[in-house]
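Late entry, written up from scratch paper. The run itself happened at the end of the previous shift, but nothing got recorded in the book at the time, so transcribing now.
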Amino acid sequence: QVQLVESGGGLVQAGGSLRLSCAASGSISSINVMGWYRQAPGKQRELVATITSGGRTNYADFVKGRFTISRDNVRTVSLQMNSLKPEDTGVYYCNTLNMAVMYWGQGTQVTVSS
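Output as recorded:
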């Protein structure tokens, strides 16, 4: 079993920055993928960015050049969000694919005011 806990959400003005962090506990494999998804009100959950344990990254087109995903070890992942836009508002969820099982955090709210 794996538990994910996110932190770092909040309210920011357009053009500002936020940094999200996620820590995993439990049975974590040394080989896994961690990432961030988001869900805006009335919309489906969508991929923001992922990173493998080897450091390979993948970004959604709408965040390329603005967001950076990184990880210090197999248990933590961060998302640096710059140049935030009102359309980035939503609940951001940490996610990991660990030993073929998908796990989700509870989510952290990000609100970008115009």
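The longest strand covers residues 18-26.
(Scratch paper discarded after transcription.)
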